[in-house]
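can u do me a favor
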């Protein structure tokens, strides 16, 4: 069983608010969503974590897959 690298809250549709992510084997809680935008491929978020790191999260709707990039 695999788990998504991003945990999110979803009310109306999936991936509305990221709350935590897994990076380098560590679970990091999202402190703030700094930006959010959509592209034809899916949803994107720029977030800060409680340990002070910044990440860009991308959810590709067509393949139901998250991608994480450290900033």
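np, heres the sequence
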């Amino acid at each position: 069983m695999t788990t998504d690298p991003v945990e999110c809250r979803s009310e109306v549709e999936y991936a509305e608010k990221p709350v935590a992510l897994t990076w380098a084997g560590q679970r990091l809680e999202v402190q703030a969503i700094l930006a959010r935008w959509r592209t034809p491929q899916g949803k994107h978020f720029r977030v800060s974590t409680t340990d002070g790191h910044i990440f860009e999260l991308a959810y590709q709707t067509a393949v139901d897959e998250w991608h994480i990039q450290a900033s």
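Residues 6-70 form one domain. hope that helps!!
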